[in-house]
Amino acid sequence: MINAKEDVSDIINWFVKYEESMEFVLKGTNQPLVRILKAFTTIDMSRNKFLGKIPDSIGNLNSLKYLNLSHNSLIGKIPSSLGSVKALESLDLSSNRLNGEIPRQLTMLNFLSALNLSVNDLVGEIPQSGGQFPTFDNRSFISNSGLCGFPLTKKCKQDPLDPQEREGSNFVDGFSWRPVVLGYGCGFVIGVSIRLLHN
Fold first, then answer.
1. Overall pTM > 0.85
2. The dihedral of CA 7, 13, 15, 17: what is its sign?
3. CA 115, CA 109: separation in Å to the nearest integer?
């Protein structure tokens, strides 16, 4: 991968930077390219039986726009360093064995218009703060049994300290267990005291 930043001499000789044509899949459709820039910003390594983890150094590819590592046997967590690839427009990590939570740093990718993290072992709540994440539908996340939250129909468990859940532990009509236990305790002490006085 070459950084797309060019000096003046490179711009003058721009035509020699192109190679023969090819076709690749971009955002789910075949895209023929008649002439390809050598500093092209696409990595498609899908369907290659790759093993191991995605290296953190992938975050150094600041010219990267399209990354497809789908249909391999990649493991480990999605590198949070991908959030540094600010030009990224399409990310496909589907059909691997990636685990852990979706890094919140990915929500900061403002140009991300295509995302596929389906068919992995991801867990936790789908992050929603900022970026394009709220625009992706459930197809981007399906077949990750541990994922929850919007846009999936599976809701995340509430925080056990959540006020609504605490209200659910109260008795009907606003009586909670504390006054009841206190009342029984006081009644027991008074009852024993009276019994001892009459003996």
1. no
2. negative
3. 11
Nearest to 136 by CA among 159, 112, 156: 112
C-alpha–C-alpha distance, residues 78 and 102, integer Å: 7
Say which residues have a Cβ less than 8 Å from residue 108's Cβ, sequence separation at least 6. Answer: 83, 130, 131
Closest CA relative to residue 91, chosen from 125, 120, 129: 120
Q: Give the residue among 82, 87, 83, 81 at the shortest CA–CA distance from 65.
A: 87
143 vs 108: CA distance, rounded Å: 24
Interval 100-143: pLDDT, tens: 999 999 999 999 999 999 999 999 999 987 678 888 999 999 99
Q: How, if at all, do strands 73-76 and 36-37 pair?
A: unpaired
- CA torsion sign for 190, 196, 197, 199 is positive
3 Cβ contact partners less than 8 Å away, ≥ 6 residues apart: 39, 62, 63
Tokens found for residue 7: 């000096």
Coil, strand or helix: which one is 99?
A: strand
Dihedrals phi, psi of 53, to nearest 5 degrees: -100, 155
Handedness of CA 158, 161, 167, 170 (dihedral sign): positive
Q: Please give the Cα distance from 166 to 161 (Å, whole number).
A: 7
Residue 24 has phi, psi (to 5 degrees) of -140, 165
- 3-state secondary structure at position 185: helix
